[in-house]
Each structure stands twice: as structure tokens, then as C-alpha cells.
Write a structure and sequence with these properties.
single chain, about 400 residues, alpha+beta, ten-stranded mixed beta sheet, two-stranded antiparallel ribbon, 14 helices, 12 strands
Length: about 400
């Protein structure tokens, strides 16, 4: 596969504040999404009427119970016409891929300015933590519900335990993910958790789904983030320095797709993040490898999944993620591959992956709070939740 030449770029990013779960009320999901979209337009120097495409993910679901509708957003914002509107499947697994979807629409000539937006609002009846327990029984869910696997954290705890069993991974590695991420959040004004986290704090925290404790879980938050993508040629005439879309990939292997259904993955797939196949295609499209990446924004709904993504994206060998993380390799200061420099889902805010795209854009503009010096390529992962998952490489414009 020949590397593709960048032809589109991110030109605007906007966000609402991040709220603890439920505190965005009485705003609606449309209001949150609309505010983020308007902020992205202001960032780019564009009118909201310039938007002619929507590229969603998670089936445009704003919290596994609420949804975003293009017609409602058009009516609310005054967008006169759209020529493209579509959504990727899966949950947060499509977050990075939604930028690829926007690119595809622009390259195909179906739209000229596409917004990718996620708005999340978790009122009590829509908490993600127990989503499977509230679902009606199905043949697939009969494999997990009777075992008490009623939420994403329970399912990821099984994968984490398998990684520990197969490779000798220690909870200290998961602690390092949580602690290093918190260190990054302390200096970021948008982060909800900005108090230092110590190793003692981690090991004294209550267990939720053994071996995962409180600090292995992402926060339950509300908020919205929107990203505007347009052609690279047009982007160079706008307000912000363009951030080219170098490559995007979306998909995955059938074996890992069993992860959120019946835990029936084969041995070689079980203790992984499901990103290996996507990573290979992503690097081939971009014409780069893991050694070329300057900063990685890895989907951290649960700390152990960062360890497994580091392996799948080739930053370390299979089974060596625990030792790699414990060595300090993912630290912003002194690490070989800074990870989640904004605080991630664990400490900044959880908006189903789109906060990671926001941080990647800031890193490549050179405006990030925890700026990686000379960052030229940023990797963003979407998921793992189930198949499909996604990956995105963004670059610094020449």
C-alpha cells in the first residue's frame, strides 16, 4: 500500500466545559453539541452556515440512550443545507475514525466542510457503567449477564486479568497509567481531576471489578467536543494553522469483536486491545511506523487498555506493555512516547474519545498545555469497545 498524500485538514476545534455526570442539566444534548460546533466554527474563522456535512460515530448516540439528529442541529444552528450525513458503527471505537469519515466525504466531493461531534450526557437512567445490566436479555448477552458482567468495566477486567496471567503484568503498570495521566491533568485548566495521585492512593482505592480499582476507570462526565475538517487547500486560507489528516483507519478482526458479546476470543487475541490490524493499515497508509510518532492519544476508558494498545500499535512488543509502562516510557517528561498529555478520560474528561482528537490538534498547532517539543505526528486511537475500532494520524503542516 503506497502512502497517501494528505488532502484534508482539521481547521477548527470547539468544546463545552466538561461536567461531572448529570451536572450539564438542564442543557439538552442538542444544546451541548451546538455549543461545541459554534466554538469550532469560531476557532476556524468559519460561519456555521459553511458546514455542509456531519460525520458522527457511535451511531450518533450521546450516551447510549440519547441521540444527536442532523435535522435538529441544522434547525437549531441555522445550517441551510447539508450534502452529507453519516455515522460509523460501534461506540468510542469510531471516535478517531469519524475524522476519516469526514475526509472520505470531502475527497469524494460529497461535502466541503464536515463536522465530527460527540456530545455526552449521562443522567441516572443513562449511565454507561451498567449499560449491559439494563439491556434486555439476548442470546449474546446470555454469555455475560448471568456472570455479573453488566458494564464495560467488568468486561475489561476479564481482559486485564488475562494479560496479567499470560504475561506477568502487574497492577503497578495500571497504576502508572493512572498516575502519569493525572500528572498531565494537573496543569490543564479543562481537567476535572487536578489533584496529585500517589501509588498509595491507587492501591488504597476501592476495588470495582477486580483487578480494576476506582482509578482504573474513566470518569463519568458530560460535555461535547466538535471538530471541523475541510480540504487542505482551503484550510491554508483559514484562521488556524491546518492540521493535516495524514491517515485514518477503521475496522478490526472478527475474533476481537467477540469481546463485548461472549468473551470467546482465541488465546492470541484475548489479552489485546483489538487494534493490531488497524495499526498495520494505519501505518501503511501514512508511510510511517511507531518510531515516527511523537505523541500518542490512546483511548483510556480503562487503564489496562492503554497497556494493550501500546503493544498493538508497536510501541513495545506483545506482552511487554506492563514493563514498558512501568519504565516511565509514557511520561510527558522523560518518556519515549508521551501518552495522553491532556489527562485523558481518566483525569480530564470522558467524551467518548473526542477529547483525544482535540489534544492532538493542539499538540500539532504547538498550543498544547503540556506541549511535546517539536511534535510533528500524533496518533489517536478510537476504542477499544468492540469491533470496529479506529486509528488516526495527524501531522504538522509544512
Amino acid at each position: 500500500m503506497a502512502p497517501q498524500t494528505p488532502d484534508t485538514a482539521i481547521v477548527g476545534v470547539g468544546a463545552t466545559p466538561y461536567y461531572p455526570r448529570g451536572e450539564s442539566h438542564p442543557q439538552t444534548i442538542t444544546e451541548l453539541a451546538g455549543k461545541a460546533i459554534l466554538a469550532a466554527c469560531e476557532d476556524a474563522g468559519l460561519s456555521v452556515k459553511d458546514i455542509d456535512g456531519f460525520a458522527y460515530y457511535s451511531m450518533a448516540g450521546g450516551g447510549y440512550g440519547r441521540s444527536m439528529e442532523t435535522a435538529s442541529l441544522m434547525e437549531t444552528l441555522g445550517i441551510p443545507e447539508v450534502t452529507f450525513t453519516a455515522s460509523l458503527t460501534a461506540g468510542g471505537g469510531g471516535s478517531a475514525g469519524s475524522i476519516g469519515l469526514a475526509r472520505a466525504a470531502i475527497v469524494a466531493g460529497d461535502a466541503t466542510c464536515v463536522v465530527s461531534v460527540m456530545a455526552l450526557q449521562q443522567l441516572p437512567e443513562y449511565r454507561l457503567g451498567g449499560v449491559f445490566g439494563k439491556a434486555e436479555p439476548t442470546p449474546e448477552k446470555s454469555f455475560i449477564q448471568p456472570a455479573g458482567l453488566t458494564g464495560p468495566g467488568h468486561l475489561m477486567s476479564v481482559l486485564a486479568r488475562r494479560h496479567m496471567h499470560a504475561y506477568g503484568t502487574r497492577r503497578e503498570a495500571f497504576a502508572e497509567v493512572a498516575i502519569s495521566t493525572r500528572e498531565n491533568a494537573i496543569t490543564r485548566p479543562t481537567a476535572l481531576r487536578r489533584t496529585p495521585l500517589t501509588l498509595d492512593d491507587y492501591f488504597n482505592a476501592r476495588m470495582i471489578a477486580e483487578p480494576l480499582c476506582l482509578y482504573d476507570f474513566c470518569m463519568e462526565t458530560d460535555g461535547a467536543v466538535a471538530v471541523l475538517t475541510t480540504s487542505l487547500e482551503r484550510a491554508r486560507d483559514l484562521r488556524q494553522k491546518p492540521v493535516p489528516v495524514v491517515a485514518a483507519a477503521h475496522g478490526g478482526r472478527r475474533e476481537w469483536g467477540r469481546g463485548f458479546s461472549w468473551m470467546g476470543m482465541p488465546e492470541e487475541t484475548f489479552a489485546s486491545s483489538g487494534h493490531a490490524a488497524v495499526a498495520q493499515r494505519l501505518y501503511a497508509k501514512a508511510g510511517v511506523g511507531p518510531d515516527d510518532i511523537d505523541v500518542a492519544l490512546l483511548y483510556d476508558h480503562f487503564a489496562p487498555m492503554v497497556v494493550m494498545q501500546l503493544e498493538d500499535y508497536g510501541f513495545c512488543a506483545k506482552g511487554e506493555g506492563g514493563a514498558f509502562v512501568e519504565s516511565g516510557a509514557i511520561r510527558y517528561k522523560g518518556g519515549s512516547i508521551p501518552v495522553n498529555t491532556h489527562g485523558g478520560h481518566l483525569s480530564e474528561g470522558y467524551v467518548i474519545g473526542m477529547t483525544h482528537v482535540r489534544e492532538a490538534v493542539e499538540q500539532l498547532r504547538g498550543t498544547a498545555v503540556n506541549q511535546v517539543p517539536g511534535a510533528e505526528l500524533a496518533l489517536v486511537s478510537g476504542g477499544p469497545a468492540t469491533i470496529p475500532v479506529s486509528g488516526l494520524i495527524l501531522g504538522r503542516d509544512a
